[in-house]
Specification:
It is built from 2 helices and no strands. The protein is mainly alpha-helical and 150 residues long.
Length: 150
């Protein structure tokens, strides 16, 4: 039986490689998204802590205006940083959405070629078996014809 060779094997390898690269990029973006979410949670905790300190300063009776003002200013800075994190997170989410669509498409392209390869493999096996069967029949017929002539 002859060896099967898929004519589009280089294209299949290329598409698998491209799909793997898109998977890696998607994983990287997911990691970036997790980092941004962790950073936002950290900033929100710090901002809440600043306002708790302001409340603590005002409860003691004597108000330290300078300290409260510094904490309020720092809370405003933290809010700006939270908004910047949200903007970065939105960009990462958009990139992730594009990557997910690209991954679906890349995976579809690979599956199409894999199905074609399997179909061609089955056709090749069928044709090889048929050729072998014909060769055996020819050998049998020629052997019988020699016996009949003798």
């Amino acid at each position: 039986m002859s060896r099967f060779a898929f004519e589009y094997e280089p294209l299949l390898r290329y598409r698998r490689h491209r799909r793997d690269l898109v998977r890696q990029l998607t994983a990287s973006l997911l990691a970036d998204l997790a980092v941004e979410e962790a950073r936002k949670a950290e900033l929100e905790r710090e901002r809440a802590r600043q306002f708790e300190e302001i409340n603590d300063l005002t409860r003691s009776g004597r108000v330290d205006v300078e300290a409260a003002s510094q904490r309020r200013f720092h809370g405003g800075v933290l809010l700006g940083e939270i908004e910047a994190v949200d903007r970065r997170r939105n960009v990462v989410e958009q990139q992730l959405s594009v990557c997910r669509r690209a991954l679906v498409e890349a995976d579809r392209e690979v599956r199409v070629l894999e199905r074609l390869r399997e179909k061609r493999r089955v056709e090749h096996a069928y044709e090889s078996g048929r050729r072998e069967q014909l060769a055996l029949e020819d050998a049998w017929v020629s052997g019988r014809s020699r016996e009949a002539m003798a």
